[in-house]
């Protein structure tokens, strides 16, 4: 049976939805707050149209507006829907039992991070039974990709244009160990590709050491990573060598559950 032709009203609604998406897509981690003129220009819309759509999106909580500056930003409702989407992702469901096992074997905290194009977002966390955390970090904690093990595990398998985009805004120093230059980062990423896992040697948090391995989707693209995190006195450089095998095995198991098949 052939599909019925769309009515003028249907076409108008589709166009309106498209304009809404163009406006929402104009906000990024770089352009988090924008004026009406900036939104209109980024979305390719007349200012009057952009203003009308922004007002409608603000009413339903998808957009918020600063009372003092008048600048627009993404609203809390999108965050809530994003968390709901993350909770239903195949990754979350498939990774959970492997993360539980890794945390038990390592005796350390395990994180699952997803790359959003600039940062990594922690979407799941497992703590060992003897060190249960009171914090729920699922879907709420993000960190720069260039100074975390989960971030570097993903960045190592991206194109140079992605690394350039991530570092374009500068590389903030969180600790004395944070990599100081793009050249140093590229060397670290090359080492990560060679050995199959990334190390955060107290680069994001003082006295914290992490080891992470990349997770691939069914198409083979690296989009996430799993890590073991602990204090530097427990996760010593020698122990990193021991944990790396467990972490890589876990990442490989999760990737296979997601449909990845390694080709000879």
Rg computed from alpha carbons, rounded to a whole number of angstroms: 21 Å
- What is the CATH-assigned architecture of the largest domain? 2-Layer Sandwich
Mean pLDDT across every amino acid position: 90
DSSP strand count: 8
Number of discrete domains:
2
Q: What's the order of the H and E elements?
A: HHHEEHHEEEHHHEEEH
Biggest sheet architecture: 6 strands, antiparallel
Number of helices: 9
At the first level of CATH, what is the class of the largest domain? Alpha Beta
* Beta-strand percent range: 15-25%
Structural class: alpha+beta
Give the helix/strand layout.
Blueprint: H1 8-25, H2 36-43, H3 47-59, E1 63-65, E2 72-74, H4 76-87, H5 90-106, E3 109-115, E4 119-126, E5 141-144, H6 149-155, H7 160-167, H8 182-195, E6 198-201, E7 208-216, E8 222-231, H9 237-257
Antiparallel strand pairs: 1-2, 3-4, 3-8, 4-5, 6-7, 7-8
Helix pairs in contact: 1-2, 2-3, 5-9
Nutshell version of this structure?
With 264 residues, the chain is α+β, with helices and mostly antiparallel strands. Helices cover 45% and strands 18% of the residues.
Summary keywords:
single chain; 264 residues; alpha+beta; Arc Repressor Mutant, subunit A; Beta-Lactamase; 2 domains; six-stranded antiparallel beta sheet; two-stranded antiparallel sheet; 9 helices; 8 strands; 18% strand; elongated
Give an overview in words.
The chain has 264 residues and is α+β, with helices and mostly antiparallel strands. Helix content is 45%, strand content 18%. The protein is built from nine helices and eight strands. The N and C termini lie far apart (43 Å). 29% of the residues are buried.
């Amino acid at each position: 049976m052939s599909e019925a032709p769309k009515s003028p009203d249907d076409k108008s609604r589709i166009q309106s939805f498209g304009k809404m998406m163009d406006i929402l897509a104009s906000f990024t981690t770089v352009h988090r707050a924008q004026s009406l003129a900036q939104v209109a220009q980024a979305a390719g819309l007349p200012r009057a149209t952009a203003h009308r759509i922004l007002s409608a999106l603000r009413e339903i909580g998808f957009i918020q507006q600063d009372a003092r500056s008048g600048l627009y930003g993404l609203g809390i409702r999108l965050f809530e829907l994003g968390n709901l989407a993350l909770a239903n992702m195949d990754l979350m469901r498939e990774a959970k039992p492997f993360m539980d096992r890794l945390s038990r074997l390592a005796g350390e905290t395990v994180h699952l991070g997803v790359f959003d194009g600039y940062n990594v977002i922690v979407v799941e966390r497992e703590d060992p039974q003897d060190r249960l955390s009171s914090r729920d970090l699922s879907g709420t904690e993000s960190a720069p990709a260039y100074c975390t093990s989960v971030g570097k595990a993903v960045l190592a398998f991206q194109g140079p244009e992605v690394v350039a985009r991530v570092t374009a805004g500068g590389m903030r120093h969180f600790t004395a160990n944070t990599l100081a230059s793009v050249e140093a980062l590229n060397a670290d990423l090359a080492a990560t590709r060679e050995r199959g896992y990334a190390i955060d040697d107290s680069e994001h948090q003082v006295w914290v050491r992490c080891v992470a391995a990349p997770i691939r989707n069914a198409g083979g693209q690296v989009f996430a990573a799993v890590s073991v995190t602990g204090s530097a006195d427990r996760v010593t450089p020698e122990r990193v060598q021991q944990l790396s095998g467990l972490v890589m095995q876990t990442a490989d198991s999760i990737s296979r559950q997601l449909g990845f098949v390694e080709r000879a």
